[in-house]
Amino acid sequence: MEGAVVFGFGLFALGLFFGWLALRLWRYRDEGSISILEAALLKTTGEEPQPRTKLDHWLHYFQMVLAFIFATLLVSVSIYGLLEEAGVL
Questions:
Q1: Contact present, 22 and 67 (Cβ < 8 Å)
Q2: Contact at 8 Å (CB) between 89 and 27?
Q3: Which positions ≥6 away from 48 have C-beta within 8 Å?
Q4: Residue 45 and residue 70: Cα distance in Å, rounded?
Q5: What own/partner pairs with CB < 8 Å and gap ≥ 24 does 78-82 have?
């Protein structure tokens, strides 16, 4: 019983993480932001970042949509599981 509750809270936390990630991706969807690793590599070589291509934009939106889907799915399943375990449903 206790393992199911811990698992439910773990899924809930993972769902919140994906929700935060989706909101962050939505907020910075039009900016040409780069990762910390890419920024460090560009700083050491002294080069400028390449412009974003259509594939980069598509992959950004694809990742954002998947993050929203997984966040919704994980939070819903975890809430259902926790309520089921508590005997409410």
A1: yes
A2: no
A3: 42
A4: 37
A5: 78/8, 78/9, 78/10, 78/11, 78/12, 78/15, 79/12, 81/4, 81/7, 81/8, 81/11, 82/5, 82/8, 82/9, 82/12
Mind listing the pLDDT tens digit for each residue in 16-72? 999 999 998 898 877 767 778 888 998 899 888 788 889 988 988 999 999 999 999
Its pTM stands at 0.78
Backbone CA torsion sign across 76, 62, 17, 24: negative
Dihedral over Cα of 35, 17, 74, 13: its sign:
positive
Candidates 22, 31, 35; CA nearest to 57 is 31
